[in-house]
Design a protein that fits this description.
This protein is mainly α and 92 residues long. The protein is 67% helix and 0% strand. The chain has a domain at 25-81.
Length: 92
């Protein structure tokens, strides 16, 4: 009888371990963290994972808008410099 109950207990332990298994690996979660930091989404907390904590949502929006404006001004500068280089010179 003891052997049977030990076997049942062992099988129940193994089954419960598989029930709590996660679908993501540690490497996948680490890559998500790196991507979030690069995107400026550092505002994910333990209580809000994988979403941004609502407390920080407005701050994140402002950072993304500032980053977008910075990219637009940088791209505008590149376009202006390439246009000036492509135009014929007045001394020809």
């Amino acid at each position: 009888m003891k052997t049977l109950s030990v076997a049942v207990l062992f099988l129940a332990t193994i089954a419960s371990a598989h029930a709590f298994a996660q679908t993501k690996t540690r490497a996948q979660v680490y890559q998500e963290l790196i991507a979030a930091q690069q995107d400026g989404r550092d505002f994910v907390t333990d209580t809000s994972y994988p979403d941004v904590n609502p407390i920080f949502a407005h701050q994140l929006e402002q950072q993304q808008e500032a980053r977008l404006a910075q990219h637009q001004t940088a791209n505008a500068g590149k376009v202006a410099s390439s246009t000036a280089a492509d135009s014929p010179s007045a001394t020809n």
